[in-house]
């Protein structure tokens, strides 16, 4: 049995090495390291995959969120609603731009924004909602879109963990994660479902004039070189990463299938363990299992984590400290107890190894180790 890792990038690369090496070599020979042809070609291929009018690549997923908020012209003091159970990047860019992050509670089953508890967070200063499609499954977008429309708010979808996931609306129409709001964002960090070999990110939109604005902001606010119409940033996807992503995009659905196969195995074994809650499968979304996240009851989470570590099984806690209890993001009116579900999740969630190269023997070993612990 291979050594168990949270993500096995080495064996994933080995399987597509000739194609990747060829793509890299082509860039090295051309020396078009910045804005080479692969960047546009990848953007077009991803736009086709997502069925969205424009994909604008940038340097990472955090920049993508920041550029989205800059492009929508939010002003200091404007309020942005985001889930309190998420990665820090979302709150960080809001704070950096002088906007006000407003935390909202998630649902314990879906781990994503609870539409039923969102409207109470809306004030006259609210300008946007940022749903995060956490762990690989879409947030419940239909009610969120209704609320946004009713209050004239933008939706910026953080699809960094769910690229490729499908959301099904009540009229049976289907859309990809990141293509339902005003702007969608993603990250190509190596461990993400579509990961490059360094940093990368992108924004998606159906609105062509907004796409033009995003493109300008990502490139120093210029359309014509040395003519700066907007205050921008320098945020590019480099050509080597784009060339790698062009190859890997072809495998994205296969990668999701492989992750689903591992999840189905875990589900089958762990559904029999009463102290363990397996991930909920939302009726409205497919799951691409960026993470396979259990909830462990009875205060046993940390002991189980340690037990698995001793058996050579790595696990991770996403996320151990909720945003409203982080030193940098504390708010006067939101002490411990304010977000009971998120606070409980921070004590109970445990993500198991899941990636595109899981072996049956590894899955069996992990399943056995968990079953034997209880
Ligand atoms: C990874 C991630 C980001 C940030 O992406 P980077 O490319 O690391 O900047 C943002 N939001 C979520 C939910 C993420 O998982």
Automatic annotation (TrEMBL):
PANTHER family linked to this entry: TRANSAMINASE, UDP-2-ACETAMIDO-2-DEOXY-3-OXO-D-GLUCURONATE AMINOTRANSFERASE
Family recorded in the similarity comment: Belongs to the DegT/DnrJ/EryC1 family.
Catalytic residues (UniProt): 192
Sites of N6-(pyridoxal phosphate)lysine modification: 192
Protein name listed in UniProt: DegT/DnrJ/EryC1/StrS family aminotransferase
UniProt keyword terms in alphabetical order: Aminotransferase, Pyridoxal phosphate, Transferase
A biological process from GO: polysaccharide biosynthetic process
InterPro entries the record matches: DegT/StrS_aminotransferase, PyrdxlP-dep_Trfase, PyrdxlP-dep_Trfase_major, PyrdxlP-dep_Trfase_small
GO terms, molecular function: pyridoxal phosphate binding; transaminase activity
